[in-house]
């Protein structure tokens, strides 16, 4: 912060002037080691060095070794050359470095300056195409042969300067000069951890290692395989393993007071998944979530891969993965689980649109960044990623209330609520402009809603909520099919085994689904005088029979209630059944009615037995009425040999009973109970 204030207050607006002011600030603020104190009086400033005078007490002159003192040197010495060079490299200002070294070479002697200048100019030349090339992560551009030879010679000289300094007296060695020649010559990566630069920070340590990684890739194609040896294992994974050898988080954040320090180390090693895991397990939830979304956006992690296995970059894919977090966990969190947990917190659930913004970031852009992955593997990873994204969004949708669903996916249009037994009943067209419409197409949203509805049915058994999502998705066949399933489950009343009384709890559920279905039929299947959008969609998709089955099931409630009404309801029950044309009344219909909807199968056994029982009761009732009428007629002396209406009724009931047995035999394999046919046969035999 103080250094930035110095930069902001420096006179002049050029980058070079501000950088020099910052170096001057560093000279005054750093604590310098005592063993370098005797160098101070022997060093000379760079001829093009910093012009701002420093405090006479600042012990920085010792770092200006190997620079000739010009005759016009002032009493207040400028900043040393190699300090300035290092900090220019540190901030990526290679152009200023080359300008400063060129000035030193023209105005005085600077040992090793020519070699350093050649390497820097070559790097500047290679960086332009490398920054735009798709292959920049695997290597730089290729130089002409004579330029490549000059580069090798210059780097050899830089290495020689580094080796000479390594074997010199520590009290006379400039650590900044030593580090600069180590970097330019790619000489000794292991020496970076033990250099003597004053106040060498964690950022300096990481930057110097990343310099090796970047410039080995950049320069390798021009160095040749045998003429010049470079570190063969200079990549982020090796740096990461080196960090672990130091102790990982135990070394960089020993007292666990600042988990961001080690997270920064992991990011520099391109271990973005480990960085998220470290922050997450250190209870830095918001930073972990936001780093996750950024890493997903730039394709740095995969949504379904455990964090300590990310990133799956082509350079390290298939290699040895190591856990960068010192907080080992058996749960192996993934980016998907991190965002899913974050979105399920009570605070975030109050803002479903915000949760949607976070969760859709799982639709990672990694495919646009991935290189070198085989097409088969890429397709596999793509399918896994899409499956995870879909699964997370499904779990999110099924957890929302009706009001929250309106905000995320919209609501059915023309939501008339008057007289509806449940708020589920709505018009089926979904409104647009909800939050998910900002990210997904209508087709994708409808598919997601359908999958969420299926999840509610199969995993949570929440039929009513599932029907609402099916309506939003425009899946009318699934809506009608589920209504039929629910009606079939409650059609036959449940009775107490001892008292034979119908159970009130079941009656409430039965009444709800009956009213629910009748309202749906009135609003959707019989809407607008037959011009029903839902009925038209069912017909177009070949599911018109589903609507017919729903109509039959709702009418069967009246049949069942009439059966349970007692003696007076038998004839009325049979009239209702005849209007439905579901069960036969003669042998011809027994063949025609054998192909019925599979949705009626759960209730067919009970319907057959109830119909046969009702037929038997009706037969007995008509038979008793005929007997009374016959005795009255005989007492009056009237002729009784004529066939009466009651005789015709009895004959029809006998035919119905026989047709029921024939029908049951034809569908025997589709009945649920093995004794249904036998029971029907015995009841038929009682009709004499």
TrEMBL record:
**InterPro entries per the UniProt record, alphabetical:** Nucleoporin_int_Nup93/Nic96
Report the subcellular localization.
Nucleus envelope; Nucleus, Nuclear pore complex
One Gene Ontology term, aspect cellular component: nuclear pore
Write down the superkingdom of origin. Answer: Eukaryota
Primary location: nucleus
Keywords, in A-Z order: Membrane, mRNA transport, Nuclear pore complex, Nucleus, Protein transport, Translocation, Transport
One of its GO biological process terms is: poly(A)+ mRNA export from nucleus
Pfam families recorded: Nic96
UniProt GO MF annotations:
structural constituent of nuclear pore
Q: Which family does it belong to?
A: Belongs to the nucleoporin interacting component (NIC) family.
Task: Output the PANTHER family linked to this UniProt entry.
Answer: NUCLEAR PORE COMPLEX PROTEIN NUP93, NUCLEAR PORE COMPLEX PROTEIN NUP93 NUCLEOPORIN NUP93 DEAD EYE PROTEIN
Return the protein name.
Nuclear pore protein
* Species: Spumella elongata
């Amino acid at each position: 912060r103080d250094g930035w204030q110095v930069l902001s207050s420096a006179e002049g607006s050029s980058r070079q002037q501000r950088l020099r002011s910052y170096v001057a600030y560093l000279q005054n603020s750093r604590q310098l080691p005592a063993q370098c104190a005797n160098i101070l009086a022997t060093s000379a400033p760079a001829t093009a060095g910093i012009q701002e005078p420093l405090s006479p007490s600042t012990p920085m002159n010792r770092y200006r070794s190997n620079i000739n003192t010009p005759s016009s040197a002032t009493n207040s010495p400028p900043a040393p050359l190699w300090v300035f060079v290092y900090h220019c490299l540190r901030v990526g200002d290679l152009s200023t470095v080359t300008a400063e070294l060129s000035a030193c070479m023209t105005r005085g002697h600077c040992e090793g300056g020519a070699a350093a200048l050649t390497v820097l100019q070559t790097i500047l030349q290679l960086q332009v195409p490398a920054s735009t090339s798709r292959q920049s992560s695997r290597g730089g551009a290729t130089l002409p042969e004579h330029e490549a030879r000059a580069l090798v010679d210059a780097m050899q000289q830089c290495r020689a300067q580094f080796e000479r300094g390594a074997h010199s007296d520590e009290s006379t060695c400039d650590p900044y000069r030593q580090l600069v020649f180590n970097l330019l010559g790619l000489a000794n990566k292991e020496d970076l951890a033990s250099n003597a630069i004053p106040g060498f920070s964690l950022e300096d340590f990481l930057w110097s290692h990343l310099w090796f990684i970047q410039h080995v890739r950049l320069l390798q194609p021009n160095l040749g395989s045998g003429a010049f040896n470079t570190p063969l294992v200079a990549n982020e994974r090796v740096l990461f393993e080196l960090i672990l050898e130091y102790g990982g988080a135990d070394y960089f954040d020993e007292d666990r007071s600042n988990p961001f320090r080690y997270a920064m180390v992991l990011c520099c090693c391109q271990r973005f998944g480990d960085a998220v895991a470290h922050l997450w397990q250190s209870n830095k939830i918001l930073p972990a979530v936001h780093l996750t979304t950024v890493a997903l956006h730039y394709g740095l992690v995969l949504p379904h891969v455990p964090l300590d296995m990310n990133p799956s970059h082509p350079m390290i894919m298939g290699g040895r993965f190591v856990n960068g977090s010192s907080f080992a966990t058996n749960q192996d969190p993934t980016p998907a689980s991190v965002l899913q947990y974050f979105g399920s917190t009570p605070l975030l659930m109050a803002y479903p649109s915000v949760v949607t913004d976070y969760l859709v970031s799982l639709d990672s852009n990694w495919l646009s960044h991935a290189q070198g992955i085989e097409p088969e593997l890429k397709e596999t990873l793509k399918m896994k990623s899409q499956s995870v994204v879909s699964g997370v969004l499904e779990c999110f949708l099924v957890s929302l209330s009706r009001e929250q669903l309106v905000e995320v996916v919209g609501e059915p249009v023309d939501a008339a609520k008057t007289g509806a037994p449940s708020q589920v009943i709505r018009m089926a067209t979904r409104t647009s402009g909800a939050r998910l419409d900002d990210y997904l197409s209508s087709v994708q949203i409808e598919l997601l809603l359908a999958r969420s509805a299926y999840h509610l049915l199969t995993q949570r058994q929440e039929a009513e909520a599932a029907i609402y999502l099916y309506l939003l998705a425009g899946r009318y066949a699934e809506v009608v099919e589920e209504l039929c399933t629910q009606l079939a489950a409650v059609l036959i009343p449940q009775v107490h085994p001892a008292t034979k009384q119908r159970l009130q709890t079941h009656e409430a559920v039965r009444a709800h689904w009956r009213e629910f279905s009748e309202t749906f039929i009135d609003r959707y299947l019989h809407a607008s005088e037959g011009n029903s959008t839902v009925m038209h969609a069912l017909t177009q998709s070949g599911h018109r029979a589903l609507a017919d089955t729903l109509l039959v099931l709702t009418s069967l409630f009246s049949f069942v209630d009439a059966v349970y009404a007692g003696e007076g309801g038998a004839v009325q029950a049979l009239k209702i059944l005849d209007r439905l044309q579901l069960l036969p009344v003669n042998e011809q219909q027994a063949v025609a009615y054998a192909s019925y909807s599979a949705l009626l199968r759960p209730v067919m056994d009970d319907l057959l037995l109830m119909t046969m029982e009702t037929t038997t009761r009706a037969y007995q009732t008509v038979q008793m009425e005929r007997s009374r009428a016959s005795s009255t007629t005989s007492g009056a002396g009237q002729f009784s040999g004529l066939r009466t209406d009651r005789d015709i009724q009895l004959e029809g009931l006998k035919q119905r009973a026989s047709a029921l047995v024939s029908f049951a035999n034809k569908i025997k394999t589709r009945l649920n109970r093995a004794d249904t046919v036998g029971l029907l046969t015995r009841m038929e035999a009682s009709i004499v």
